[in-house]
Amino acid sequence: MSKVKVGLVQMSCSGDAKSNMDKAISGIKDAAAKGANIICLQELFTSLYFCDVEDYENFKLAEPVPGPSTDILSAVAKEAGVVLIASLFEKRAQGLYHNTTAVLDADGSYLGKYRKMHIPDDPAYFEKFYFTPGDLGYKMFETKYGKIGVLICWDQWYPEASRLTALMGAVILFYPTAIGWATSQDEVTNTEQYNAWQTIQRSHAVANGVHVVSVNRVGLEQNGAMKFWGGSFVANPFGSLIVKATHDQEEVIVTELDLSKTDSYRTHWPFLRDRRIDSYGDIVKRFID
To answer: What CA–CA distance (Å, rounded) separates 287 from 289?
Structure first.
């Protein structure tokens, strides 16, 4: 298909998993009613962002993938005829957990999963306490509505991840996300951080000639110390914003992408043609001393 409609479900979360799932399903149905073909939910949408603390009780939030949540969402995807991208806390085995996104095709079938490769460890983002780095590599999923790639939040900052996913054939990169501001920060810092976050992802669109879809959560969490900044957006293959959500409202956005733009931009700006793959061997080093 040369034209596809994508849906972004930007929402706040509570401590009640069923309530969060119900809200997500409502958002999916809303997006589908607006014509969406592929719908992306935010990172870890079934719970509060629990990584703000190191608490062993939070491991109880995890589930197998595929598992209960994918079973529920599979039925929703099939009924609505949409592709779903769902970020979940995966329990792989006893004592082994991943930050994982499942992809469900428009007939409800489970296409597979991507496990987050880059795991942060920052104040209020203690993800290394919970998640083992992904071991499935980068992934492209061939859905009813096109070839897509999925990366997760902290993966956003790494051009290598977007490049490899695009080289597999993905023409849309989806980034389920949970990122926000410390409420103690000033507005100048907030603006600078959001702009950097958006800019790096728009640069992935330009460098690879693909659409980028980033879906973030909103709302105050961590006892009011963290405000997730929303600002979900879609960029075209030259990095231009097609649509952008607010920083503080729950929103369901549907917008159309013209996937033929990939060939057009890549032909006129042939970055892939001119790559010097023979000169990049040192990229696998930690640092070049």
So the answer is: 6
Dig out the tokens for 83 from the structure: 């592709």
Q: Identify the bridge partners of residue 125 per DSSP, sorted by sequence position.
A: 122
Q: In DSSP terms, which residues pair with 97 in a beta bridge?
A: 91
* Nearest CA among 146, 174, 4 for reference residue 85: 174
Extended beta strands in 76-192, E state: 83-93, 96-104, 110-115, 140-143, 146-150, 172-176, 180-182
Q: Is the pTM of this model over 0.90?
A: yes
pLDDT in tens, 52-85: 999 999 999 999 999 999 999 999 999 999 999 9
What would the pLDDT profile of 11-54 be if each residue is shown by its tens digit? 999 999 999 999 999 999 999 999 999 999 999 999 999 999 99
Fold that domain 3-269 belongs to in CATH: Nitrilase/N-carbamoyl-D-aminoacid amidohydrolase (3.60.110)
- Write the single-letter amino acid at 34: K
Domain ranges within the chain, ordered by starting residue: 3-269
- Catalytically active residues, by annotation: 43, 116, 153
What average pLDDT score do residues 263-268 get? Answer: 96
Residue 133 phi/psi, 5° resolution? -55, 145
